[in-house]
Design a protein that fits this description.
- The chain is an alpha/beta fold.
- It folds into two domains: 160 residues, Rossmann fold (3-Layer(aba) Sandwich); 111 residues, Rossmann fold (3-Layer(aba) Sandwich).
- Helices cover 44% and strands 15% of the residues.
- It is built from eleven helices and ten strands.
- A six-stranded parallel sheet has the order 4-3-1-2-9-10, sandwiched between helices. A four-stranded parallel sheet has the order 6-5-7-8, sandwiched between helices.
- β1, α1 and β2 form a beta-alpha-beta unit.
- α2 packs across α3 and α8 packs across α9.
- It is globular.
- The protein binds D-glutamic acid.
- D-glutamic acid binds next to α3.
């Protein structure tokens, strides 16, 4: 047993879709969530910068006492997973869970025609993280599409409407033309756009997100490593969740509760990593 919190990291709000699934599957656990809103979106940033920001964010979660780390961001996973595993798992025996492999596995199970579409940020698509994760499966065809504006809409709290639908139609048209029957939402922000993406892709295309499958992996890691929180929690012994952002003047504090639910009781600001040359 280990009563320390699970640390969950994202560039902003998207990781809340993973946090929701972790809370649902592991209701006794405490969560400490950090959204690096001061630097969101990560998608257009150079990979080296995303790696630096991600390791910085994970360090903050380790300082907050995290017993396991969930990189709830595809872009951060693509940029920093192997460094993070070396630093925290090899160096400190803290398991690091990511979002790409669980979604890739779920897509392989879901597809019938072996044509899988992947949408994500510019950085995730350029990294080919999903193409590599799916490469070992014979006979699969993978079609990728970057959707850079989606994260900005989510961070602004705009998850529906004709303008967004028009953008989605443009982004998704090439994948529809290829006839994919399964679409990986390869960005943790995108489950918040499931309505519009599902409407554009149509009923015959299965949408695969990493939230529930990543929560499954988190569950297994905690069980296998004997890290579960002690079970008996009653009145007065509820799980304690902390939500941290690097920019409280963003919409994060307002939208976190809307996107995750009543577990978000307050949001605290932590100082962000100053980037070289003063870039934000
Ligand atoms: N939610 C993140 C992802 O899964 C990052 C989005 C961004 O900050 O660009 O890729």
């Amino acid at each position: 047993m280990d009563n320390a919190p699970i640390g969950i990291f994202d560039s902003g709000l998207g990781g809340l879709t993973v946090a929701r699934a972790v809370i649902d599957q592991l209701p006794d656990e405490d969560i400490v969530y950090l959204g690096d809103t001061a630097h969101a979106p990560y998608g257009p940033r150079p990979i080296a910068e995303v790696r630096q920001l991600t390791l910085w964010g994970l360090d903050r979660l380790v300082e907050a006492g995290a017993k396991a780390l969930v990189i709830a961001c595809n872009t951060a996973t693509a940029a920093a997973l192997s460094d993070a595993r070396e630093r925290y798992w090899v160096g400190q025996h803290i398991p690091v869970i990511e979002v790409v492999t669980p979604a890739a596995r779920a897509a392989v199970v879901a597809t019938h025609n072996h044509k899988i579409g992947v949408i994500g940020t510019q950085a995730t698509i350029q990294s080919e993280a999903y193409v590599n994760a799916l490469a070992a499966v014979p006979g699969l065809r993978v079609f990728q599409q970057a959707c850079p504006l989606f994260v900005e809409y989510v961070e602004a709290g705009q998850t529906a409407g004709p303008e967004l639908e028009g953008i989605a139609r443009e982004y998704l048209a090439p994948l529809k033309e290829e006839g994919v029957d399964t679409l990986i939402l390869g960005c943790t922000h995108y489950p918040l756009l499931t309505g519009v993406i599902g409407r554009v892709m149509g009923d015959n295309v299965r949408l695969v997100t990493s939230s529930a499958t990543t929560a499954n992996v988190t569950y297994n890691e905690l069980v296998d490593r004997d890290l579960l929180h002690a079970p008996c929690r009653g009145a007065g012994d509820e799980p304690q969740h902390q939500f941290l952002t690097t920019d409280a003047s963003s919409r994060f504090p307002i939208l976190a509760r809307r996107f995750l639910g009543p577990e978000v009781q307050s949001v605290s600001e932590v100082p962000s990593l100053p980037l070289e040359g003063g870039a934000q």
